[in-house]
Amino acid sequence: MSEPAILVEGLSKRFGPVIAVDQLGFSAPKGAVIGLLGGNGAGKTTSIAMLLGLLIPTSGSIRILGEDMLKHRYRVLGRMNFSSPYVDLPRRLTPRQNLRVFASLYAVADPTRRIAELSEQLALGEFIDRPCGSLSAGQKTRVALAKALLNRPELLLLDEPTASLDPDTADWIRQYLETFRRQTGATILLASHNMAEVERLCNEVLMMRRGRVVDHGTPKELLRRYGRANLEEVFLDIARDRSQPVAAPSEEARPEAG
Ligand SMILES: Nc1ncnc2c1ncn2[C@@H]1O[C@H](COP(=O)(O)OP(=O)(O)OP(=O)(O)O)[C@@H](O)[C@H]1O
């Protein structure tokens, strides 16, 4: 059997007294789409930053595409990429200029052609030569995704890929990601607060609370286990530390209106 795309064991990160990630462990087979869910402060962004080699773990190990990330990250960084709404591209450069810089960092062959390809696929044409600082949130997200796909990554890490997008653009991005995964066989790990998105895209979901994975499974398994109709309800059960679904309050128990 081939090595998993991601293998994380006993991964922890402390910031002084704060334990942001606490003994995290999971593996992602190649070609999987893994959802990382958890409330604010659960440790999703810190985990992604460690997977990217941007933060040094306090302890634990990370293997990506068969390489030890802590010892040999330069062997594997060129085969992965990421996008996050929290990381802005240089604002004075246009998307085309930004993409050129990143294409040279990733040593992309024939960057002009690759940028034209992505510009067409992600419909960047209308604003590709305007400064990034002047773009709307949705336009910036598409540019960030183009940057993340420049090097045809085998592993794509996405932090909130559809944050601040209107429903139509968000749906379009999800469809794009599905097609990208199907056509390339890439592995995707995405952190999201959008449960419908996770239900649609992911074959495995990791539920995080206080830096730990407190439950995991396919969306269907989680729905069955918690007896819920959608992942949003499962998420609330887990975030509020209810191992069993709780019945809605009866009419008498509800506070009086007005
Ligand atoms: N540089 C830092 N210094 C100190 N504490 C930090 C730092 N980065 C993160 N933390 C803390 O680590 C915990 C996990 O934060 P993290 O950003 O990973 O959560 P998250 O799941 O991505 O949250 P959100 O959904 O709000 O983005 C939080 O308590 C946060 O305050």
Describe what is shown at a glance.
With 258 residues, the protein is an alpha/beta fold.
Q: What does this protein structure show overall?
A:
Helix content is 36%, strand content 24%. The chain is α/β, with parallel strands linked by helices and 258 residues long. It has a domain of 165 residues: 3-Layer(aba) Sandwich (Rossmann fold), CATH 3.40.50. It has a six-stranded mixed β-sheet with strand order 6-7-8-3-9-10, with helices on both faces. The protein has a four-stranded antiparallel β-sheet with strand order 2-1-4-5. A hairpin with a 2-residue loop joins β9 and β10. The longest helix is centred in the last third of the chain and has 18 residues. The C terminus is likely disordered. The site of adenosine-5'-triphosphate has 11 residues, from β2 and α1. This is ABC transporter. It comes from Hypericibacter adhaerens. One of its GO terms (molecular function) is ATP hydrolysis activity. Pfam families: ABC_tran.
